[in-house]
Amino acid sequence: MNKYLSGIDLWEMGYAFSNSIGIHAPALNMHLAFVSICSLYFVFEGFRESGQKIFRWINCLVFVFSFFFVLFVNTRMALFNTLIGFVLVFFTEVFRKYNYKKVVGFLVVLIVVLGTVLFFFVQKNPYMKEKYSTVTFAYIDKVGKLDEIENPEAKVFNSLVTRISIWKSTWELSLQHLPFGVGASDGKPELVKYFKQTNQQFLAKYEFPTHNQFLDYLLKFGLLGPIVVLLYIGTIGYLGIDLKNAIVFSFFFLFFTSNLTDDFLLRFDGIAFSGLWMSIFASCRIQKKSVDKELTVL
Length: 298
What we know:
- The chain is mainly α.
- The protein has 15 helices and no strands.
- Helix 3 (25-48) runs antiparallel to helix 4 (53-73).
- The radius of gyration is 22 Å and the shape is flat.
- The N and C termini lie far apart (58 Å).
- The model has no long low-confidence stretch (mean pLDDT 86).
């Protein structure tokens, strides 16, 4: 936090913060993104239901702080998913439950609040503008040729071109081992070996994982792998559609897209995170079906 306020080493700020509490930055920000989406939902619910005003403003304060910390940890997919979640919650919850004038009013207030938080955050972190423009898409012509970049550790370690280079190699190696893959325990060793065979020394040196759950399972288990991942994550999407619930569907979108750029089902926190919430959503569906059945009988 001191580095953020002082404008020092802003490129590593989010990773240093997440490491200080012993969690991977994208995983932490995935949790924070869902907290922020849920907080917005509670803000709308608080204004819809009659109750003490103090709780409404507490909800608003929690929402503002949760969005700030999504920016603070500052992973690109989490910010993207947070904004998409806001859109889903707004259009499903506000449009269904409020009249036209209140919808417009809420939209204006929401844009002003998010814009204000973003403006003041960027004032203290000018690197964010660079990260979301030049850094993200830098050296995109060097896919599979990262060693041609001078000092790639400093320039493209967390860049999109590095991810695409890893995905390209994973895809090529997976095609060589269809239909059954290389096996559960040999995925990363075989990928690192392939980096060396294709003379990608930068990737081999740091032994990058696949950073894509679908490609990781394609490499390990062949054709069946990504199908199983899709069925698992797709179950959450099905629950969201069946329940007609923006929170559930936002979680599905968040976890689906997060696994396109990372491999959270290889990590305990990713498995526990998805498994816990899927169980809660499934319980909600069972309760809803039970209530619907009782109403039908009556």
